């Protein structure tokens, strides 16, 4: 395996350090999160509460909100029941269960501030509990609705990458390594910058270390992501990949980290997107099919469903 | 047509690539969005929900909110009716329609958490439905109000550009290409930077490609956009436009992309504004009329309605 | 008047252009807004609504909110009254005024979603109006509360500048022009950068134009604004102010624009602050008094009330 | 004490100026705030209200919210009572205290917009007060809930630093000064940059001044903070620490300011973290223990509880 000599810059390692990769583990997951497990966090770690609630799945979020609503109402129902039979005006309950249900629904009406009033608190105790419950209800719902809206409006990149990375014909150097991306959102992305880090295991003096090479690109920047963008690394003499074979890549647990930065011109925020191509994602000798055509007025029509389409070249 | 030789920098193409423009299509619309149609998005694409709801017209937004309110109440009305006649206390309905209307208005009072209470839920079933409805109502209204406020407060540039781009007299080079802009908002804009990309079709060895030239400007930056700003590209020997005629520009589907970047000092965000001048927007041999004068205390008075005013020069 | 020769850089003019200042008008107001009057805005200009509502005085904001609440309730009261006598259940009104007041308070209870229920809508029409009113009430209050919170939480620099700019003794050059600033907020400001533009009228070949010189500073950056910061322009041979007298400054309508940029480490936003010293604000031959001392533990104690304190030097 | 000659750059002083440190006072507290006391603020300084409410402890925040709720309800209860006995419909109060309690709970039901309606306002006066109370209640709760959510969602760095700074073996220079950090949050941090300023008292010509040296680092940047990051200052010939002893550091009140900057890729904001190592925090001749290992699939497992673990080296 013939890697060209090149001074190692420790700042290229993306923060992973020189440990070799074993057993086909990507360093970065497809969705851009680092493939690292974290333990040893403080047992009661509030630092991640907000992050957890914002990033959990919608399913889990709804289960959590509904459970909290149920549990809190059950709790307050017990309090109202424990105050005594006369605590709720308008309740015609005769059995214990019936009494509890009345207290439960009264609690729900209080916490959501609906307050129909056909059941209403009577006496000092239940009035005080209801006053506190309605106040906490307002604050709790504010948190829930804030989280709901925060989840809904969270700005995040929605970049689709072509499923494969191709070794394709390229005019000046004969061959190039390339993949494509496009914006799945209607948000306008501007001032895009991309970086590709090629990473692989190398055995130097009997010790296996992980190495990182930023790849030269035909083009690192785009002003506007109007269509798709094909990122090309020309396989010229400076490329560390020039003489690598399929087997070399597999044996060295090779992979490509893709780091994209852009400015979202709709929500005025800098966004970042990352992905990872493992050696298995490379298609040798193929080229991408066109992803756009023209409508009758001459306007460009971009078909996002074709972003991964390619054809394997014969010969 | 004599375009000066110049090394093509692929990063100047704004992300549009080398496809020629056909049939008088601007690359960027006047409002700054790219003139590209996008198809092939996943059928159930949630990535754009928020963007759609924030950027749709106010008319459509209100229709949507009112429809949703109506439909949800009709739905819940059916549920209350289906539970049975005795489900709503206080309803004196005798006919089916009357019953439905009572259920509908009860639902509206529940979902908005008004809860007058002259109609109230009776029994396990309708109480449970009402408890869930009031909770969902709070969350749904939180989304609606979040969107309403988000739409209202969304920071965005409101730059007005002069309607035309002029070929006007300019001291040092004889002529210059110029246009004007001003801030329509009272927000203070600082640290403005502008870029003009001249773009046209060129036929090289029988193949028509699109070319992009960033134009040299008299001044690229302004610290404060206090008044209007006249952007000037001097027509000197380095200009690719130096010897182009009106016909050259028309035949080559020429246009000018304007890219403006600024910091909004009221809302502390970087904003971007884009526009496009098509070859048809050029006025040959004209100059802008003054856009400001002094009041009696010597203070500058800027008249934004005159931003496009110019006079065609005789001779 | 002997101004040293220096190539004019049009980008130093802050965006004000070469018009001379007349009749003692500062270019920038003390609070940092440009001293320019803007007219000719479209009659129905929605672009500034949010900005106006966020930046208006608290007094005007509360008057607006209360008026809107009053007017909307009067409007809906008229609608309920016009529906007819039986439209409101629980109203025992016999006179027209009494009827109107009942309708008015019912409207207030509906729009704020309190909904006591002692008065409740009766019949199709008033029920429908109430359903719509409660929905619009929720949305309107969302806007009002959003604005209230937006006003309250708006990040903005609160820099206090010394009232005067001093011509004070300075070690290496004999004299220096200096002023002080400090942070009035408890927010931590980091990475501060400052720029001072000296601006004055100059008559060149009979034509008076405004000139702008960025002044050299002893120090342009501070990592943390922990205490006060004294900004010094040394009066050395490169200074355009070196040989200017009090009369020169007055005759040339001289002034100093101060541009400060910092990162607010509490709210994670870049903030900007501007101010202006007119020639009248200069104190010749004075020096600042110390603004901090030590407590018994050796800790620095900064006294913000002394930021402008200086003593005029004898001789 | 032999400090190498080096031109002093006043911009290295972090904004603390040349005053010497006395009596073992760190310049920056462990939590990153400057160790400076501020007095002389205007008595009624609204600039810090929001900052105070957002950054106060949760305990104080809840006490404040509950007290405000209690006080406002007591206030409105007095108003309702003062209007007269008949002001509240549904109140069967016969004693003054009972009357007051009814008014108090009615107020709570109004301000939280629950509005059961078993007690309701009667007459012009109490209806008007209730209408205003419900409106103010909505606005006040909006502020409270805004603050609650603002506190909960406030983006802030949660970096843990190793408790000590070690003088440890380092390949090329024999020894290095090092410490470790990791991200306590699950938020992904990218584009990290670090700076270490070494600061100490120095007596020059009989006058003690504070000096500041930015230290050279093995590595100043990391693309992704995936694991821990060990920051190393090699003790080579250029280091001002090269020949300093434990006593030198103590006598000169030495300390290290750590300034970290990163981009939070979950909430799309630039965050900053600062800490301070006092001379007492240095451990001479020790090295850090590993902080991660591999799970059975070869994935890296980071144990955050080991971030400060080190072993003192014998000999």
Q: How would you explain this protein's 3D organization?
A:
Four copies of one chain form a homotetramer. With 315 residues, chain A is an alpha+beta fold. Chain A folds into two domains: 46-153, Helix Hairpins, CATH 1.10.287.70; 156-312, G protein-activated inward rectifier potassium channel 1 (Immunoglobulin-like, Sandwich), CATH 2.60.40. Chain A is built from five helices and 17 strands. Chain A has helices at residues 49-55, 58-83, 96-111, 123-153, 246-251, and strands at 36-39, 88-89, 120-121, 159-161, 165-170, 174-183, 189-204, 207-214, 221-224, 229-234, 255-264, 269-278, 282-284, 286-288, 292-294, 300-303, 310-312. In chain A, the strands form five sheets. In chain A, strands 4, 5, 6, 10 and 13 form a five-stranded mixed beta sheet that branches. In chain A, strands 7, 8, 9, 11 and 12 form a five-stranded antiparallel beta sheet that branches. The first copy, chain A, is elongated, with a radius of gyration of 29 Å. The first copy, chain A, starts with 35 loop residues before the first strand and ends with a strand. The mean pLDDT of chain A is 84. Chains A and B meet through helix 2, helix 3, helix 4, strand 9 and strand 16 of A and strand 1, helix 1, strand 3, helix 4 and strand 12 of B. Strand 16 of chain C pairs parallel with strand 1 (36-39) of chain D, so a sheet runs across the interface.
């Amino acid at each position: 395996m013939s890697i060209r000599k090149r001074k190692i810059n420790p700042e290229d390692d993306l923060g992973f350090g020189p440990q070799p990769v074993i057993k086909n583990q990507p360093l970065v997951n497809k969705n851009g999160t680092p493939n690292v497990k974290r333990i040893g966090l403080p047992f009661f770690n509030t630092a991640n509460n907000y992050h957890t609630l914002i990033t959990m799945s919608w399913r889990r979020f709804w289960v959590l909100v509904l459970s909290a609503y149920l549990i809190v109402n059950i709790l307050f129902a017990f309090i109202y029941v424990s105050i005594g039979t006369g605590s709720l005006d308008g309740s015609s309950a005769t059995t214990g269960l019936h009494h509890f249900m009345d207290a439960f629904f009264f609690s729900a009406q209080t916490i959501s501030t609906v307050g129909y009033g056909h059941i209403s608190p009577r006496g000092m105790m239940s009035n005080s509990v209801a006053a506190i419950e309605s106040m906490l209800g307002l604050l709790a719902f504010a948190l829930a609705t804030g989280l709901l809206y925060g989840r809904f409006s969270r700005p995040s990149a929605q970049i689709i990458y072509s499923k494969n990375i191709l070794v394709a014909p390229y005019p000046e150097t004969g061959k190039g390594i390339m993949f494509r991306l496009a914006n799945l959102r209607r948000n306008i992305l501007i001032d895009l910058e991309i970086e590709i880090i090629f990473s692989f295991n190398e055995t130097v003096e009997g010790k296996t270390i992980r190495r990182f090479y930023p790849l030269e690109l035909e083009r690192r920047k785009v002003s506007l992501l109007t269509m798709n963008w094909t990122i090309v690394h020309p396989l010229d003499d400076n490329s560390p990949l020039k003489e690598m074979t399929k087997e070399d890549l597999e044996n060295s647990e090779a992979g490509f980290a893709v780091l994209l930065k852009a400015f979202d011109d709709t929500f005025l925020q800098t966004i970042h997107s990352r992905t990872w191509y493992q050696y298995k994602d490379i298609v040798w000798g193929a080229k991408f099919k066109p992803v756009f055509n023209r409508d009758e007025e001459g306007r460009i029509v971009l078909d996002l469903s074709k972003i991964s389409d390619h054809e394997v070249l014969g010969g």
